[in-house]
Amino acid sequence: MAYITRRLAKFVGSEASGIVLVPNVTTAINAVVRSIPFKKEEKIFCLNITYGAVKKLLKYTAESLHLEYQEENLNLPLTSKQEILDLVSSKLSLNTRLAVFDHIPSNAAFIMPVKEIIDICHDRGVPVLIDGAHALGALPLSMKDLNPDYYTANAHKWLCNPKGCAFLYVREELRSRTRPLVVSHGFGSGFNSEFIWSGLRDYSPFLALHTVLDFWNAVGVNRIRKGMHGLLSQAVDLLVKAWDTGLLAPISMCGSMALVELPNELSRNHTVEYSLAESVQNELYYRYNIEVPIKALQDRLYVRISAHIYNELPEYQRLASAILEIAKSKGGQQARDAMVRKLDDAAR
Description:
The chain is α/β, with parallel strands linked by helices.
């Protein structure tokens, strides 16, 4: 365990004493939030694109401890990272006890300018927690360069490790007060021991990191990331041209995922909400055998596409064709519905 922790620490630009292995990002964020000695009326800050489960934790914490929960709305689509920085800079107050940001928001899929965000937070004396659930593997990481107070990421997503493995980084002066959710034999033996020895568990997902990191080094870390982004760029270009739409954020802000807007025919005469997105997603799965998330964000429908080294461009061509077929059928149905309404009105 100590050896694999050292290997992962090197991979993410941290000293080995600064990271601990945990089952998932949710566990890590809970541990951090539960360890902070909040005072009444202090603020917890996040954005509307923060992961849903994390927002629920922050709201629960605020309600339980009589804190102020501050969630700011980022307008979408984006044209540049400056819109994010301007929002954070204008809304983050000095009375904030913790600010939480995603490195790559799950629902929005663009890369947040976390280095600049961390600097803004630190300039105001605000501790910051970065949720990097989608970052490990997708992006080069260096805790030394980013300098967060807390950072956590999953290994089962882009790194392709078995599920049940993530890491939590904590700044040195905060480690002694950051405690795991379960107190067990490691308690009192230091930051790393407290998290490793926190009750009976299956350590195999942690130990698998050894082989996974060997794979990344054998293929080439930069080669893998370049391949993912290159394929994503090709796929985005294909879909945008096929559907005559655009992106939620510029391709320069994307790593291995992007949100591409769907054709208007899919949402015309409908309220754009979760149920509509779910219906399109289900039709893609059951009719075309395509598994891909559909997102309803600020009155627009998007598809979140991902690109890894096991994907190929023809897969995205299948998606493009399937969406066009669905849009055509819905457009035809809408035209028929309009005709029926017109005939009904004439009959009256």
